[in-house]
Specification:
The protein has helices spanning 6-11, 17-27, 31-35, 79-93, 141-147, 161-171, 177-181, 185-190, 209-213, 281-294, 304-315, 319-322, 347-359, 361-381, 383-404, 442-452, 455-466; strands at residues 69-72, 97-98, 132-133, 153-158, 262-264, 267-269, 297-300. Helix 4 (79-93) packs parallel to helix 17 (455-466), helix 6 (161-171) crosses helix 13 (347-359) and helix 11 (304-315) crosses helix 15. It is mainly α. The strands form two sheets. The protein has a five-stranded parallel β-sheet, sandwiched between helices. A two-stranded antiparallel sheet has the order 5-6.
Length: 483
């Protein structure tokens, strides 16, 4: 794997191991403040590149496309649509995927490098490098770095816990014991502890699913039977960044964070080590700061197209590299595409959203944090520049849909007879898919097919490409001469 870069070395300081290291840090006092380490927020500046105008690329590009990628595919957050563009990009450019034996890396267990098909540990012989790791896993940085280079681009996606809860209840009702026992999401959120048992089969889907997928430790009161170790105590917790942009200010984290005001050396602080509670904002902020040191970008489902523009900019990709169709969306549900806000909801729906965010308080903290960081990046990128890029992205998507798809949109699975494009049906809602128009050229059939292929079928396609079945050649037998 080679020596780790300084930035990636910080990533090895996971939230669990930091608890052990903290005792050493406290003995050197103010040196901790001078050193900073993994607790310093890392938000690299974005390079300003050519906008997505329909003009030829410069003869000498200002950047090189990034092709070593780690995507944490979170559940019910629009991540299947991101996976689709990664599948297409890697397929088109001949990149090598780190693939699971089936469709997930042993989820809900923490990721292990040994679950990557074709992976050989160091010293186990040479192997071609992997370019993209992107299928469902519970994040485990140490093991990920056994598979992927330390300078890979790490990114993920989050979704408003209120919308995620609605989608997860429909999709995982038969999987989560808590959801299965509840007659409705409203009934569940009205009294969740009547249905939810930490550690019960499938109940990680019922509370703080994003936090779980990121592999973060839980406070003791939320501890599951899987046994998360005690998280570290933070004597000087990093502060959440202030909101940037009008839409960021609509997310009020005050319902989550109730810091204990203390005065030390004449300065107001969030808390002291003596008053720190593992379920407090200090514990949450500690983990968020660690994520900032690991992930180069976190997309936000409610601002999906804006997120794709920032992703393309960070990766030095073009418009067609990130344009695509929504995948794994349920009929009547959808994934992302609408900004957070309860203005158009009924009073009952607003109450349900508030309860969902309170029940999934760790996920709400994640969401508030990464929504703010997204809008900080948008400010760097430039709002007018972003608006132009988003408009170009949406126009291109609409044009491709009209050209490629019957009806120009996703369809009920009953209309999809071609098994190559029929999405896997799971949960109580219908998962929509696509039908290609007839009369497409062979080249358009290939490109439109890539856009329309669901994640499971595309994974199988990549698997067959990377691991072609061995063809047994019959042995030639010498024909004996006649006596």
């Amino acid at each position: 794997m080679g020596p780790l870069s300084p930035t990636r070395t910080m990533r090895l300081w996971g939230p669990r191991s930091l608890g052990v290291a903290l005792g050493v840090f406290m003995t050197i006092g103010f040196a901790l403040q001078l050193w900073g380490g993994p607790f310093q927020r890392r938000l690299p500046g974005l390079q300003l590149r050519q906008s997505w105008a329909s003009t030829p690329r410069p003869a000498v590009p200002s950047c090189l496309p990034r092709q070593r990628l780690v995507f944490l595919k979170t559940h019910k957050s629009g991540s299947s649509s991101v996976l689709s563009l990664l599948h297409r990009y890697g397929d088109r450019h001949g990149l090598r995927f780190a693939l699971p034996a089936r469709y997930q890396f042993g989820y809900p267990k923490l990721f292990q490098a040994s679950r990557v098909k074709g992976y050989r540990p160091q010293g186990g012989g040479t192997q071609p490098p992997f370019h993209i790791l992107c299928h469902h896993m519970r994040f485990n940085l140490k093991e990920v770095l056994q598979v992927m280079p330390s300078d890979s681009f790490f990114f993920s996606i989050v979704r408003d816990p209120a919308a995620l809860a609605r989608s997860a209840f429909s999709y995982y009702k038969s999987t989560s014991s808590a959801f299965r026992k509840s007659p409705s999401l409203a009934a569940f959120l009205d009294n969740p502890r009547a249905f939810y048992q930490p550690g019960a089969r499938g109940d990680h889907y019922a509370r703080n699913l994003l936090w779980f997928d990121f592999g973060l430790p839980f406070p003791p009161k939320m501890r599951t039977k899987r046994g998360n170790p005690h998280p570290p105590r933070d004597p000087n917790p990093p502060q959440l960044p202030s909101g940037v942009g009008a839409r960021a200010h609509t997310l009020d984290p005050s319902a989550l964070f109730h810091p204990v005001p203390t005065v030390a050396d004449g300065h107001s602080q969030t808390s002291s080590s003596a008053s720190l509670d593992l379920g407090s904002s200090s514990f949450i902020q500690w983990n968020l700061a660690w994520l900032d040191s690991v992930f180069d970008l976190v997309l936000v489902a409610e601002y999906f197209d804006e997120s794709l523009v920032l992703l393309a900019d960070a990766l030095c990709w073009g418009l067609d590299d990130v344009v695509g169709f929504m995948h794994n969306a349920q009929a009547g549900g959808g994934q992302g595409g609408s900004a957070v806000g309860d203005g158009g909801l009924t009073a009952e729906d607003r109450q349900l959203s508030a309860r969902a965010r309170a029940w999934n308080n760790l996920d709400w903290a994640l969401y508030v944090h990464f929504n703010r960081s997204l809008w900080a990046r948008i400010k760097q990128y430039g709002q007018s520049r972003l608006d132009s890029a988003v408009a170009a992205l949406r126009a291109r998507r609409e044009a491709l849909a009209k050209h490629c798809l019957v009806g120009g949109e996703a369809l009920d699975p009953k209309y999809i007879t071609d098994q190559r494009f029929r999405p896997f049906q799971f949960g109580s809602g219908k998962v929509l898919g696509y039908v290609l128009r007839s009369g497409l050229s062979l080249q358009d059939q290939e490109e439109c097919g890539r856009l329309a292929t669901p994640e499971l079928q595309y994974k199988d396609k990549l698997d067959a490409k990377q691991f072609p079945p061995a063809v047994s050649v019959p042995l030639k037998t010498s024909r004996l001469p006649s006596p």
